[in-house]
Amino acid sequence: MIKILKQISPYIVILISLISVSFIKADNPSEIHVWEMKEIKLQAEQTYDNYYTEVECWVELKGPDFSKRVYGFWNGDNNFAVRIVATKPGKWEWVSGSNQPDDKGLNNHKGEFTAVEWNESEIEQNPNRHGFIRATPNGHALQYADGTPFFLVGDTWLAGSTWRLPFRNAVTSEDYEPGPGMGFEDAVNYRKNQGFNSVSMIACFPNWESDYNASTYADSNGIYLRNAWEKFGYYTKDGKLTAKDMRDEDGNKPFQMSEEHPGVADFNHINPEYFKSLDKKMQYLSDQGFVPLLETVRRDMCPSWKAYFDFNESYAKYVQYLSSRYGAYNFIYSKIHLDWIPKEYSLTAKEFNEALIYHLKKYGPMPFGQPVSTLINNSTYTQFGHGDDCPWLTMQSVGNKPRDHRVADSIEVLFRLDPPYPAINFEPYYTGWDHEINMPNGERPPANSERDNYFSRAQMYGSVLSGGLSGHVHGTAAYDITTTGEPSGMRPHVWDAYKYESATYMQHLKEFILSEGKKYENLQLAREDVQPNKAPESPEKGLDGWSYMMRTPEKDFALLYFENESVLPLLTNFKPDTKYYFQWFNTINGEWKEKIEIRSDEKGTLKIPEFPDGGNPSSTDWAAKIVSRS
Question: Do 338 and 456 have their domain in common?
Answer without folding.
Answer: yes
